[in-house]
Design goal:
Alpha-Beta Plaits; 115 residues; 4 helices; alpha+beta
Length: 115
């Protein structure tokens, strides 16, 4: 049975703050990569492409964690809590809006072997 957690965190920066927000999010990558259960943690920017013309916030974090407890521990790290306090909760922060979602790769009716 897969225990992986997939997190997609989309960010809408405040006007004129896109580059600063991107750099602030990139600064979180090195320490996240040091976490044993971090399988992927990458901040990306939206680019124009004729084959993918959907709508989204311009900055997106793609994360894969080995399991739910590891993801939740990561979310409670001081560095992560301070980032959201400074840039989302603080009116002077860089983020106008954020949408953070987690996913599993298991179907609802997956017949996983008993452990």
């Amino acid at each position: 049975m897969s225990q992986k957690i997939y997190c997609t965190a989309s960010f809408k920066p405040k006007t004129g703050k896109e580059d600063a927000l991107f750099r602030a999010l990139q600064a979180l990558e090195p320490n996240a990569h040091r976490e044993d259960a971090c399988l992927m943690y990458t901040v990306t920017r939206h680019i124009d492409n004729p084959f993918a013309q959907g709508n989204s916030y311009p900055i997106v974090f793609h994360e894969i964690w080995a399991n739910r407890p590891a993801f939740e521990a990561h979310c409670q790290r001081r560095e992560i809590r301070e980032f959201f306090a400074a840039h989302l909760e603080n009116p002077n922060g860089y983020i106008e809006d954020a949408n953070v979602c987690v996913y599993t790769d298991e179907p609802v009716d997956y017949d996983a072997p008993a452990l």
